[in-house]
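Batch job 17 of 40 flagged for manual review because the log was empty.
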Amino acid sequence: MDEPTTILPVFLAKPVPSWPCPHIDLAKEMEDIYSALAVVAAQHAPYCTFLKGGMLFKDARTLDNDLPAQVRTMKPDGLLVFNTTSGVSSLIDATVGWGDEFGIPVILFSQPYSGHDWQIYSRLKNVGVAFDVLATSDFTEIASRVNLVRAVKALRREKLLVVRPPSSAKGGWGEQAKRKLGIDVEITDYKRLLERYEQQDEQSVKAIANNWIQKAERVVEPSEAEIQRSARLYLACKDVMREAKATAITIDCLGGFARNDLPAYPCLGFAQLNDEGAMGVCEADVKTAIAEILVKDLAGRPGFVSDPLFDTSKDLLIHAHCVSATRLDGPGGPASPYAIRSHMEDDKGASLQVRMEVGREVTMLNFLDASLDQMLCSTGTVVDVPDSERGCRTKVATRVKNCRHMLENWEGGLHRVIVYGDLVEDLRNLGKLLHFGIKREDEPGP
């Protein structure tokens, strides 16, 4: 998302201050806070803007009259609340209520010696509002919450196109994804995709296929014609996504190819979409696609959907699949080396064998079930990228803690999303705004 995330500061105070001191200069307090926010904004320019004109509210009547007007006029993506004195719990309540009314998150920044109204968070965290609190003297921590507000905004602009036979369509996903995360889900069959496949320009198809071939370290099984079929399907995916105003696509690819519903596997095209900052996800797996969209909007980089397997003798969790982005640090990052291979399970079509970076920390995640109420997650370190004919083409071995515990307590289906970096805390905090919990798969429960 190129446009900045806009945050409206809101200042709250008692009519007659006592704590932190009875003679506090509230105008100077606001000026100092805006100076600190300017430093944060400069460090994260141009992606973060703190709107000028944030008001000081001392009573609920003024807040209820003036804050909604400010929000309607300025259209911020989130509210950043400062309790400049104690005794403003009712004003925080009202501000959170207006945030909920306008559908924007509210973050309370409670500095030490500003008051004790941080206590309100424990009451509000379970009532279904998008609210979080920072109780710290470090203003740079605000940037992490601005990123969460940005992610919430980005998710509300996402649309997932699910391509699969009509008989396999299941209800509930669209409503839950929209209600919980703001993601639209549209289910369609193969007809439009196949029509667009036949309409592609031969010159464009060959140019894309040649680019993939030239950048590959090697091409093993697929013929040039097979790779061109993959390029044609990639362009068809782009067309149907544009027509549906979709930002992501997932296709029943294994079944579709086996039934001859698809003329090629979408693996190469999905890798290209993921490198571009869009999203292509395997096997019409809606739950996993939603998780990958979420992590892309949170971290700014694609995930790798995997079929995990264990080697407990070495504390390894190995991830394998035939689709992977090459730009795993995001569209502006470097491309990992890759080979063009056949799809492993039937030795047909074309897919990628990507060599991920050894030594990188990764997060593994997925939603537990269709409710989207709980996110399963864990962390590990990449220690090897096995080059073996056994298992899906792209493989990455990660060293994890409590490997046996993970094996014995596996739940939530097979697929997981792997992404560079330790995102557990960010996921936990995003869950506060989107109302899902975190369960660590690599830590025994109580």
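Reviewer: the log was empty due to a logging misconfiguration, but the result itself is present. DSSP finds 14 helices and 20 strands in the chain. Unflagging and moving on to job 18.
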